Structure formats: C-alpha cells, structure tokens
Amino acid sequence: MMQKQQFNEQLFDFLAASPTPFHAVYEMRGRLQEAGYIELEEKSRWHVKAAGRYFIVRNESSIIAWNMPASGELSDEGMRMVGAHTDSPCLKVKPNPETVRQGCLRLGVEVYGGALLNPWFDRDLSLAGRVNYSTESGELRSELINFVQPIAVIPSLAIHLDREANKDRTINPQTDLPPILAQLHGDGKADLRELLKQQLLAKDVADVDQVLDYELCFYDVQKPSYIGLDNEFFASARLDNLLSCFIGLQALIESDTEQGALLVCNDHEEVGSASAVGAQGPMLKQLLERLLPEPEARNRMIANSMMVSVDNAHAVHPNFVDKHDGNHGPRMNGGAVIKLNSNQRYATNSETAAMFRRFAQLEEIPLQSFVVRSDMGCGSTIGPITAAELGVKTIDVGVPQLAMHSIRELAGSEDAVGLTQILRRFYSSESV
C-alpha cells in the first residue's frame, strides 16, 4: 500500500488529466494496462482464463475491470464488486452554440447535472471532450481533445450594476452562463467545428475532413492542490466522483487476491443513470451474463457477491452545522462514511454495514456514519440502482467532502488512502 503523500500525488495527476468522463476512462485504461490487465472488445468473442485480469470500455465513458478467481469458479466464490461514477456536474456545449454579442464570441451551454452555478463565474475555463469526425476517405472516427489552456470565462456582473447581488441573486442558465471565448472585429465570425478541426490537426490527426459532432464541456484549469496550514485538505474539481474512481482503481490493482474482484465506473450518474452506459443500463448485467451464461450459476454467483458503492459523502460544514443531524455529521479526515437511509436512497443495510465495519477494523481504519436530517430530502447513488438491477447485497460508502457539486470541491487528505486500504481488504476477502 503506497503512503499518503505518494497516493495523493498520483490522485492529483489523475484528476488533472481527467476533465471529462472520456479522459477519466482513458486514464484508467492506461493504468490498468500498465498493471497487466487485458482489454476485451464487447463485439468480439471472449476467452477469459482463471486468474486473468481484464477490462472493457463502453462509449469511452464507462469502464469495468475485473480479476477472475484463481480457481476459475465464480458461482461458489462470488464477486467482490466496487462501483463509482465517472461524470460530474458541468457546463456542456450545445450543438449550435456560437453567438456574437457586443463583439464577443460566446458559446451556448447546457447545465449537466445538479451543478452549483455561482462558483463558475470568474474562473479560468478550458474546453475538453470527444470529437467525432469523418476522414478524407469517408471513415468515421473519434478523438479526445483538450484545449488545456484557459480559453474562456464567465464574467460576473459588477455589483455597481446589481446592488442586490449579495442578497438575492439568481442565475438564468440560458442568458447568464454562456462563456466568452474571444473578441471579434468587424464582421468577424467563428465556427466551433473549424476550431475543433484545427485542434485535431494540432494533435497530428492528419486525415481529418469534417467534424461531424462532439460532446464537450468547460472545466476549470486550476490544478488540484493541498489546502490548510498542515495540508489537512485538498481541493480540486470533480472530486465527486473521480476521487472514488481512483480509490476503486488503486484498490483493485493493489489487491493481491485469488478471489473474483470487479470495479465498475459508470457514466451518467448525475443525471439519473438511465442510459446504455449508466448504472441503470445493462452494462454490468451483460458482463456477468457473459462470464456465467447459465442462469442458475449466475444467480448463485450474485448471491455470493457484494457491491460497495463508493460516492462522496457530505462532511459537516462548520459554518452550517444545523444542516446535519446532530449525531451524524461526518468530519473530513475522520475516516470513510457509511451512508444510510431508511427510504432506500442508499442501499446500506445492517448486514452489509457490519461486513464493511469488520474490514475497517481489520485495517484499523476509523469509520463514520451519515444519515440525512429527518426534515430534509436525501440524495442517492448508483448503490440502490445496482442493487435493484442485480439483486446483489450492497453498501453505500464514501469520503466526506465539502462544496459538493461546486466547480472546486474540498476533501480531507487522510481519508482517500484509508478507504483504499479498506477496499483492498474487501477485494481480498475469502467470503462476503
């Protein structure tokens, strides 16, 4: 198990290289390949072997990696599963986004997920995502792009022109959020698709003929960094939930286990998970059907399995303590959080919580609990969705954080490495 400093430095590198789900999966693919995992194509016939390590990618935005047990027998041993999601709230570019007003080129955006919008103002923004294009020979291809440099900004309206800004300011996503990219002169025009083509050519993608479509989002170029007098915290974009993706990935790669172990990182959790690559879609179920085509054997495997859904939890905010139940306000650097909700917004039950607590005890890692105030609504995760789709016993856990769904979030520098240690123990457990 790597030390905290080394772990967090690698985490920072991963976060900085992953401005979109496409880039996150690309980074995870590379790390898996370095660790000896073999990529399988879903459209091809598979020949998996006992003790083999494999992964699949769908839509370039969701990924499943797994270890086959040394015995090759999944029905009796089951699969130790960890789940997370690759997407984060953001501003996505519309299909025909270009508008020019007062000589400024702007791009129209659509809010993806439950983004906290105020922090997006006055940030140095860049643009990244996937571009689909045709070649000069007529082939259809795709490529990931990242402008890297700050190319856009959403300036705030000066308080002199909005005297009530600090009292009751609301944000209209249609009119207030289009980022400014350039100042045009005369009758100057700009074509985003042409800009994307030039970006592809700059990457030495030489046979680009026409950009046909894209999935792009703006992101804050500020790098992850430590915060606090003693580096108690770290701040970054997309901690929810790339932090959990990295934790699950490291735990899987580091687990020296002969047991069946699996990591699934789905896209589209922030918008409900109902897609071909979301947790409510068939991706994980179809994988398990391919590994065990016979229904009875597969059902036995699921009965012998367990899922740990990893998604960040709400740490208690020192300025807003009354937003938490008095006995269930987890603190940053206080350990991973078990999330519970009697209305099944989280999938935790006493059996799965007891198992997870035992893994933490064996690693001597502290745990905390989160239950939402009884007079407030509760968010949810991929945990209940996966439990309902597969029928697998499930627990919801996560690292406590502040500023969830902001453009820049905050977490404790101790918690991620601790949760990784627990998950590594879970992956190596002989029975669940």
UniProtKB/TrEMBL annotation:
Question: What does the record give as cofactor?
Answer: Zn(2+)
Keywords annotated in UniProt? Aminopeptidase, Hydrolase, Metal-binding, Metalloprotease, Protease, Zinc
What this protein is called in its record is M18 family aminopeptidase
Q: Name one GO biological process term.
A: proteolysis
List the GO terms this entry assigns under cellular component, sorted alphabetically.
cytoplasm
Q: Which Pfam families match?
A: Peptidase_M18 (PF02127)
This protein's source sits in the domain of life called Bacteria
**Which EC class is the enzyme in?**
hydrolase
The EC number(s) attached to this protein equal: 3.4.11.-
What family is this protein classified in?
Belongs to the peptidase M18 family.
Query: Which InterPro entries does the protein's record reference?
Result: Peptidase_M18 (IPR001948), Peptidase_M18_dom2 (IPR023358)
GO molecular function term, any single one: metallopeptidase activity
